[in-house]
Amino acid sequence: MPDVLAVPIEHQFDDATQQREAATMGMWLFIATEILLFGGMFLGYTAYRHAYPSAFAEASRHTLIAFGGTNTAVLLISSTVMAFAVRAASQNRRKLLGLLLFVTASLGVLFLVIKGLEYAHEINEHLLPGRAFHIDAADPQHAELFFYIYWLMTGVHALHVTIGVVLITFFAFRAWFRDAFRNHDTPIELLGLYWHFVDIVWVFLFPLIYMIDRHS
Amino acid sequence: MNEPSARTYLFTGIALLAFLGLTIAAAYVNLGPLNTGVAMAISFAKGALIVLFFMHIRYSKPILWVFVGAGFFWLGIMLVLAMSDYMSRGWN
Amino acid sequence: MTTATLQAAPQPRPLTKPTYLADGKTIRSWLLTTDHKRIAILYMISITLFFFIGGAAATMMRLELLTPQGDLVTSETYNKLFTIHGVVMVWFFLIPSIPTVLGNFLVPLMIGARDVAFPKLNLASWYLFMAGGAFAVFSIITGGVDTGWTFYTPYSSTYANGHVIAMATGIFIAGFGSIATGLNFIVTIHKMRAPGLTWFRLPMFIWTIYTTSLILVLATPVLAITLTLMALERAFGVGIFNPAMGGDPLLFQHLFWFYSHPAVYIMILPGMGVVSELIPCFARKQMFGYRFVAYATVAIGVFGFLVWGHHMFVSSQSIYAGMIFSILSFAVSVPSAIKVFNWTATLYKGSIRFQTPMLYALGFVGLFTIGGLTGLFLACLAVDVHVHDTYFVIAHFHYIMVGGMVMGYLGGLHFWWPKITGRLYPERLAKLSAVTIFLGFNLTFFPQFILGYLGMPRRYPVYAPEFQVLNVFSTAGASILAVGYVLPLAYLLWSLRWGRVAGPNPWQATGLEWTTSSPPPTDNFEKTPIVTEGPYAYDAQAAEAELEAGHA
User: Fold this and answer.
1) Torsions phi, psi of C537, nearest 5?
2) How does pLDDT run across C315-345, given as a tens digit for each residue?
3) Which of B83, C73, C155, C157 could form an S-S bond across to C77 if both were Cys, CB 3.0 to 4.6 Å?
4) Cα separation of C315 and C313, whole Å?
């Protein structure tokens, strides 16, 4: 099988299967560490929301659900495109791979732009915690606590999106111009895992941030 | 590993967007204390779709199922035991 | 599944390969190496350095405590000394010690692999460790930190002077080194085992390193985010833990101990792994209840995550949560006791040889048992109210960490020294130092149990005059201990040049690492070994007969 031989096998591995399975397993472990990294912040959120439910509900109604909802859709679509990109990589279709990666990265950029507009709006509305913070709420102190957590969690998430966009763009160029992943699609698969994970974090953040007691 | 088909990806994507619509709709219905529970259940369903199909866990060896489970299980340990303090403290 | 992928034997290699030590002599060949054995040596040198930094701080503290007055250093300096001692010893010596030195060296050798799964990541983790260490040393040199190694908020985030952020950054970066190491080991142990090496044929050291890696991977990220939040609070006034802004300082403690309690098991499990190798070898006997010891290892790792609240019994944590954490803490003693019983049962009717590694192993078992049992006192809610924040706690965890982990590390270092360097250390001097360490250790820390029980609080340079006698004992013990630690440094270095050549297997030990030459070639094995039996295939009766014949 000539295309199997094309994969460079590092000296510690015996064959391509072992190498690929080791890499995938490593990526999943990395994702487990990321779950716990975000988990620390989720615990902060849960503890304070449990302690100050009404302040959190009130603060949450100051967030822009239209922006948040659109952004969720953007990320879900980008994840779907990424899934097709991984498929294109495994089928050695380099132009399609490059194109789909580029679309994924563009959607990531769109997410960041929308998030940035939302941040700008919140700064104008004095919702950035600090000296200038001001909110019309019964319990402004704990509403501010909500916004600490909001900025923190979305900020760390946005950092992950940014890293993802940079990597995806880099890989897109490598696929398009160098055909770097012919018979060697493991890097693309791992990149996909990372991007899907970033998506999942947002899937949980979205209802927790934007939709506390929206009905009342 | 048998790859999922393009149709699977497409349906997964559509299901995810449908769930998104459902989350938003459910948020505007007063379910009392259930609102958060419903929202989290939908989020878990979305996460499960992504993990199983986009991230290929559905087609992977059992050990990877264990690793995915371990991440969430340990997060659960942290939330449950720490909240056992907060929920029984009576500090308000 | 794993064995299937490994069946393809590698192509035959030329018979005489250079040892890993001879394979490149330049500094560059060391600093850019991806060989797990060389990375182990890099770690060994680095953590030895950190050990003596942390030890210097401890020496200053013990000297200060010689008299009840604060006459050697100011209170502020004393605070900085115990912070330096804690931070350096925990994150830059104990946590990396056995996993990164012996683990890096032995994991691929013990499972019959050519290297770890991700050799470049392995080197990167050493650089992360060193970068973290550089931040910590910078913070020490430019004025130090006085928060204690736990960085409790709001003191650390609001009031403390000194370079808290630099110190936290150092720990944060070193933490990612730990994560990388743990991830590497888990994948290596899953994917790189030699044909026939099933899970229940693995040496117990591998089981403990696996469990330790699991803890590293799952707990360290929480430390990273916790220190980040603390640093953000300090730098920008983010109020997550600040009660003045509605935050809860106990949240910091929950997050911190979610990492730092399991971290205790990062520090002790690998020591248990080393002892589980030493005792069968020097008792010439199969390990008693191998499977139970393996299960107990994993159980300790998992239970270790369920008990962190016992550090917070007097912190205004809910009393009901305290009760749950207390009960769960008692539960950890079950798998720990299983291990002690199994080591003891392994010794029973063994053909025991009291060579240096065995002395360390026996010391470990005794000291760990004392440390573990006093842990039960502390896990008991009512007793903890009395002894919390006293020297009782200090004595307890030093029995685990110094009596346990450092003894384990030194025992392992002596045991595998011939494999690592190809040379034997001077046996008589080594025995002398093992006994010195054991005596010095007990003289240092046993009086602290009594001091704590009598109510002497930790973290003060000044104490009531009636405590002086016991403190003098403790300081005297510490100086003996210091001699015990300097001796191995001297004779191990001496042995590099003048030690007797060891040969591949000086202990007649089982295990794949002893089937290759000492020091091993870069690729570890001439050809991938095939495993057909379980570990510890020792025969006590044959060994005894051999011993008698030798003496007759």
Assistant:
1) -80, 65
2) 989 999 999 999 999 999 999 999 999 999 9
3) C73
4) 6
Please indicate whether, in this complex, the C-beta atoms of A36 and C218 are within 8 angstroms of each other. yes
* pLDDT average, residue stretch C227-250: 90
Q: Measure C179 CA to nearest chain A CA, in Å.
A: 8
Chains that touch B (3 or more CB pairs under 8 A): A, C
Cβ separation of A141 and C218 shorter than 8 Å?
A: no
Contacts of C552 (CB under 8 A, 6+ apart): none
Query: Which residues in chain B have Cβ-Cβ distances shorter than 8 Å to C221?
Result: none
Query: Quick one: B50 and B9 in the same domain?
Result: yes
C274-288 mean pLDDT: 96
SS (H, E, C) C151-207: CCCCHHHHHCCECHHHHHHHHHHHHHHHHHHHHHHHHHHHHCCCCCCCHHHCCHHHH
Is C116 in Cβ contact with A12 (below 8 Å)?
yes
C5 contacts chain A (CB < 8 A)? yes
Contacting residues of C for B82, CB less than 8 Å apart: 251, 254, 258
C309 contacts chain B (CB < 8 A): yes
How far A177 CA lies from chain C's nearest CA (Å)?
27
- Asked if residue B90 and residue B55 are part of one domain, the reply reads no
C29-45 pLDDT, tens digit per residue, is 999 999 999 999 999 99
Instruction: Say how far apart CA B81 and CA C489 lie, in whole Å.
Output: 44
Whether residues B66 and B56 share a domain: the answer is no
How large is the average pLDDT for residues C115-124? 97
A131 and B CB contact within 8 Å = no
Q: List CB contacts (< 8 A) between B70 and chain C.
A: 214, 218
Closest CA to C271 of C399, C407, C395: C407
* Closest Cβ–Cβ partner in C214, C258, C319 for B78: C258
CATH classification at residue C29: 1.20.210.10
* B68 and B47 both lie in a single domain: no
Give the range of the structural domain holding residue B74, as residue numbers without chain letter: 61-92
Tell me which of C108 and C9 has the higher pLDDT. C108
Q: Is C242 on the interface with A (CB under 8 A)?
A: no
Asked if the C-beta of B27 comes within 8 angstroms of chain A's C-beta atoms, the answer is yes
Indicate whether B17 and B47 sit together in one domain.
Answer: yes
- Tell me, yes or no, whether B44 and B69 share the same domain: no
- The residue that leads in pLDDT, C368 or C244, is C368
CA-based nearest distance C246→chain B, Å: 11
Substitution target in B60, B61, B67, B74 with the highest count of C β-carbons within 10 Å is: B74
- Asked if A43 lies within 8 A of C254 by C-beta distance, the reply is yes
CB A87 to CB B6 under 8 A? yes
| pLDDT for C3 | 41
Long-range contacts of A155-160 (CB under 8 A, 24+ apart): A156/A38, A156/A41, A157/A38, A157/A198, A157/A201, A157/A202, A157/A205, A158/A112, A158/A115, A160/A34, A160/A198, A160/A201
pLDDT for A8 = 82
CB contact (8 A) between residue B85 and residue C305: no
Number of domains in chain C: 1
Mean pLDDT (chain C, rounded): 93
Given this model, what pLDDT does residue B33 score?
A: 83
Q: B79 to chain A, minimum CA–CA distance in Å?
A: 6
Determine the residue type at B29: V
Q: What is the pLDDT of residue B2?
A: 59
ipTM of the complex, rounded to two decimals: 0.93
The CATH number of whichever domain residue A194 belongs to comes to 1.20.120.80
Residue B47, pLDDT above cutoff 70: yes
Specify if C48 maps to a domain: yes
Whole-angstrom Cα distance, residue C527 to residue A133? 67
* CB-count exposure of residue C411 (10 Å: 0-12, 13-18, 19+): buried
* Overall domain count for chain B: 2
